[in-house]
Amino acid sequence: MNLSNLKPAEGSTKNRKRIGRGQGSGRGGTSTRGHKGAKSRSGYTSKVGFEGGQMPLQRRLPKVGFKNINRVSYRGLNLDILQRLVDKTNASEINMDLLIQNGLASKNDLIKILGRGELKSKIEVKVHAFSASAKLAIENTGGTAITL
């Protein structure tokens, strides 16, 4: 090995045209930035959504409504769906694991039992919330409604 056959390691050099390295490079002078204006100057940064002074889209569109960041949203399950689940699985207790296994909820859902339909089985239900009519219907059949 001597100085005449030294080469850089593979992948250590880039095959790009270096700009701003004199007229002889073919990319000197304005260095591909054009003439004058903010974009030609060093330190230029543009705001997100900047449209060259035109009123930006996010300011042109009307603002509608209100989004409550503290909103808690529940997935509603009615009594008739619970009855179908009991008929299918012969379960005496309905909890989150059973609902997830049967595709009625995902693991991050908050579940609320609603009062549509009729419940015939005596079951113990453990979920996050109940409507008043659903809780009454569950307790009328001899079951229990437990809030997590």
Description:
The structure is a single chain. The chain has 148 residues and is of the alpha/beta class. 20% of the residues lie in helices and 14% in strands. It has four helices and six strands.
Quickly list its features.
about 150 residues; three-stranded parallel beta sheet; 4 helices
Give a short account of the largest sheet: 3 strands, parallel
Cα separation of the termini = 75 Å
Task: Give the radius of gyration.
Answer: 34 Å
Secondary-structure element sequence? Answer: HEHEHEEEHE
Query: How many alpha or pi helices?
Result: 4
Give the helix level as a range of percent: 10-25%
Strand content: 5-15%
E-strand count = 6
The overall average pLDDT, rounded, is 90
What's this entry about, in short?
The protein has 148 residues and is of the alpha/beta class.
Give the SSE layout:
Elements: H1 57-60, E1 75-78, H2 79-89, E2 93-94, H3 96-101, E3 111-114, E4 124-127, E5 129-130, H4 132-140, E6 144-147
Parallel strand pairs: 1-3, 2-4, 3-5, 4-6
